[in-house]
Structure prediction request, 237 residues.
Amino acid sequence: MTVSVLEEVRSRIFDKRYEWSRIDRAKALSSPAALDLLREACLIESYLPVYTSKMTELFWDDLEATEVYTIEAFEAYTHYYTLRRYLDIVGYRPISDEEIVRLRSRERSVRYTDQIRELVNFMATEQFAASFFEDLIDAVKEPVLQAMLARFAGEEVRHSELACHLLRRRVERDPDIADRIVEMASKVRHVGSYVLPHVSPAKDDNVKTLIEFSRRIEGLTGRSLTSALLAARREAP
Ligand SMILES: [Fe+2]
Prediction:
């Protein structure tokens, strides 16, 4: 079979990035629970490049924001591609094109209209993803996968910082935006939950990640997220 130009480009991007030929199948398959989590992460990453195209429309006139979402789109694509190829190589529940198309179809007609909501969810999602990949490094035993996860975690930290930067810019321009950020942070959603019924943490206890998120919101807005959550609970009927 001839190699398509797309396959050639993929190969140029990915073949030297990781030591694919050194993947230890037996070691990989000895952590099925971790592979299930990575499969879920791969599905979420497959959605992000199309989600970011919707964000490009929402942030059309904001060059920094469209740049940030373009970086996210490309690096999320690399995470998706890497994980999918990894699952194929080790032969663990390979992902099909149909599964990805089905996943995307849920969001096809959704239009996003709230920049602050999306930036807060983006910042949280990326921070959650960084902890997720970091936590999995200890849970897997296969060294090639550990190298992949370390790279992903570093990239997710930067994506979250980029989202934070865009929010900070907005607060500088209009300090009243801080209230909206706290409000959205109190209803925060993982972007993966836009297309999946459930998003799993890598560890049962993700309190550390939540505390860190709350601290970052406080640093950004000067307001306490915990107090906002408690007030919302008091007001709830
Ligand atoms: Fe990301």
Summary: The radius of gyration is 19 Å. The chain has ten helices and no strands.
